[in-house]
Structure formats: structure tokens, C-alpha cells
Amino acid sequence: MRKLIVILLVVLSLFTVCLPAYAAEAEAPEASSSGSVIEPRADVIVVKYRISNGVPQYRRWNETQGYWVDPYWIDM
Question: How far is it, in rounded angstroms, from Cα 62 to Cα 27?
Fold first, then answer.
């Protein structure tokens, strides 16, 4: 039993010593010949609804940029 515990401790100590060096290599970015790639993303537009004086209205909100797309509420 004592021999098994010693073997486990040796294996665990080797594993913890080798792990940070391997992780540091895996996280390093690879250099590409064309440089970095930029991927454009579309803005997320959400439609907000309300009822004002019995008239249903809507207005578009840009979730990505944080501003109203339409300047005023539009009657439906």
C-alpha cells in the first residue's frame, strides 16, 4: 500500500510540473501569413411595443450600440 501511495505522489508531482509548460504553449496564438482576420457582425435590432392613448405603437432599439434606430414612436 505504501508503494502505491509513493507512485501516485510521484505521478501527480510530474503531472503538475509538466502541465503549466504545456498550457503556456497551447495558449500562444499562431502567426498567420495573412495577419489577423476581422469578422464583421451585424447590429442586434429589437422592436419595442407600447400602447399610447389606445394606439399601438412600435420603435426599434439597437441592442449593440445602445440607441433608438427610429427617432419617434410609429403608429401601427
Answer: 34
Q: What would you measure as the largest C-alpha separation in the chain, in angstroms?
A: 83
- Size of the chain in residues: 76
pTM of the model: 0.47
Higher pLDDT, 65 or 5: 65
Q: Which residues pair with 56 in a beta bridge?
A: 51
Which has more pLDDT, 13 or 39? 39
Q: Can you give the residue range of the structural domain that contains 56?
A: 2-29+41-75
Q: Measure the CA–CA gap between 25 and 32, rounded to whole angstroms.
A: 16
Q: How many domains does the chain have?
A: 1
